[in-house]
Amino acid sequence: MQIWEFSGEEYEDVTRQIYTPMIARTAPDFRGWSAVQELGDALTLSRSQFRGPISAVRTDRMAARASVDDLMLFSVRQLAGRGHVRQHDRVAELAAGSGILIEGRSRYERVSSAEVLSVNLRFPRELLPLPTAEITDCCARSIDPAAPAMQMVYGYLDRLFEMADDLTALQRLDAGRAAVDLLVMALRDVTPSVPGGTGSEEVLLDMMRTHVREHLADPQLRVEELARRHHVSVRHMYSLFAQIGTTPGAYLREQRLLAARLMLSDPRYARLAMPGIAAAVGFLDITTFGRAFRRQYGTTPTGWRREHLGSGPLP
């Protein structure tokens, strides 16, 4: 077990070591500590306590430098207090006992104005056996602390932290992967739904989200067209997406850019020119595609491909 004690000035160095790199602002009297159990390659379990207000952000540029098998962070807050996490245009309140999943490959911010005590599981994204879009949908959504699956996850993480020193390296790795498997069960409780909505509204929203993911290459798919295809008004569609923390346009753009980023990181598409990548995810104008990609990830599509596929000659 490693134990870190730090001031506000040292917090950014700690995030690089045990979480994901962030830029932070803290009060002059900010203090914190973290105890870390190494479970395997990039797989860690930690307990952390912060005293004093803190505002931390992982910028688009930081997220753009994440590797293909980048990191996820699942955090369980143990103390009540004002605070929130924002990612993918969603805001999750930091309630006592609730769990929140964050992905390192996208911008996020965390704000807290009180003492924080949390248990944190960091793991490679590849260990989470869920589709990319589903993982993204689960991020920045609070898991109800009263849910049985959430209680199982927290109980397991708490016990594993206490016992990790007595396990062999292989046992720690197996235990860490088992924690991720338990997390998958808990994430089923945060499948986006319409609060207070009817079952038919939930089905309709799910149908629209699925339609978007399956028709990204269709350049005619816009907000108005999505509403027409599902026989609802644009106003009603906006009200449904608003209740899960986003808009139809933002969701469509996010899914297209996610798909483009995956293609740019995949050697199978290394010969596909940039206009082909843009067209494959529904952008007819290469300039619009480049501008949207840079705004989202802090780098150009070409820069992303060069960083993730190398700058040498194409195969």
TrEMBL record:
InterPro entries (alphabetical): AraC-bd_2, AraC_XylS_family_regulators, Homeodomain-like_sf, HTH_AraC, HTH_AraC-typ_CS
Q: List UniProt keywords, sorted A-Z.
A: DNA-binding, Transcription, Transcription regulation
Q: Name one Pfam family in it.
A: HTH_18
* Gene3D superfamilies (UniProt xref): Homeodomain-like
The HTH araC/xylS-type domain, residue ranges? 206-307
Q: What is this protein called?
A: Helix-turn-helix domain-containing protein
The protein's organism comes out as Pseudonocardia alaniniphila
